[in-house]
Amino acid sequence: MAKAHEIVVGSTWGIRNIFQSLVAILATTLVVTAIYLTQEGEQWSQDKTKLHSLSKCDFFSGKWVFDNESYPLYKEQQCTFMSDQLACEKFGRKDLSYQNWKWKPHQCDLPRFNATTLLERLRNKRMVFVGDSLNRGQWVSMVCLVESSIPPILKSMRTIANGSLNIFKAQEYNATIEFYWAPLLVESNSDDPVNHRVAERTVRVHGIEKHAKYWTDADILVFNTFLWWRRKAMNVLWGSFGDPNGVMKKVGMVRVYEMALRTWSDWLEVHINRNKTNLFFVSMSPTHQKAHEWGGAEGENCYNERDKISEEGYWGNGSYPSMMRVVENVIEDLNGRGLKVELLNITQLSEYRKEGHPSIYRKQWDPLTEEQLSNPKTYADCIHWCLPGVPDVWNELLYAYILNP
User: Fold this and answer.
1) DSSP states of 238-259
2) Fewer CB within 10 Å, N side or C side of the chain?
3) Where does the Trichome birefringence-like C-terminal domain lie (predicted)?
4) Cβ–Cβ contacts within 10 Å for residue 219, how many?
């Protein structure tokens, strides 16, 4: 009996011990879970606070900070679809510090660009850049930013619409990043993507459907237009090209610019699906063609420039506040009509970057004359931008808006 009693007592102690162990395990699990949930909650709270702070931040007021550890965000020679117009290193530029500057807003940090995150946002969607060669440069930048994360067999590039529409496709995501050539947004005699140099520029300020049909169903639209309007006046055509009954009149700047943007805004108001499409307008990209404006020698330009402009608030004569006000007014009017358009105000931050242009380091489409070769500044490109470079930051700003709509 004693032996049996011992067995019973032993069994009871064993059950009690197992029960206590289970209680201890459960308690530990509850504590660990509580800690985990607290940490997750804190992380969620931090992320929410960060997104909230980004929404309150003025992205366009800040300074350039040299960073040769995190920048550039990609290598020029590793971008499959790099443009020879923007590949400055390929065409002989040796000083590459223009690739190592990041934009730091005064009130926050821009989110680090993540190609996979963007592609997930673009899954089953179209992002279309519409505008001139500067917008095309931003498009090339965006393609370079994302394409290195995509295997070669899962990405492609094609051109349609007589060369006007270039389509980069990430097949795994069923996403496209496209560029449509429309340098004045409305129809003009400069609409051919190759042969667009004309002595007298003519626009149909009320004609936009020719272009718009190619980007009607886009999910993200990024527009720009400025460079091609830089003249005192422009021919305006009422009627169609080739119509003998058409009426032509020369209209001064800034009025003709406003007429075109009103046509653009009216089209958006009627045709854009407000529940689907996000709209952006990129402000004027500055040029650096007169060095005396930033304290350089008279008659010089961006050629041989190696440093950025350090004077805060610097504004060159190549950027026109009157045209900027037109854009702001048109967008404000659209917003008042219930159609949200984000203005990516890249003008001021780009003003500081006089050394960021291709200068002579790009493919020359026409043979250079002996006179040009003897004086390189005469053929220096002080309008477009080297890649990697300034347009990558424009896309970081765009990315921040897409991430936090």
Assistant:
1) ES-TT-TT-EEEEEETTHHHHH
2) N
3) 110-400
4) 17
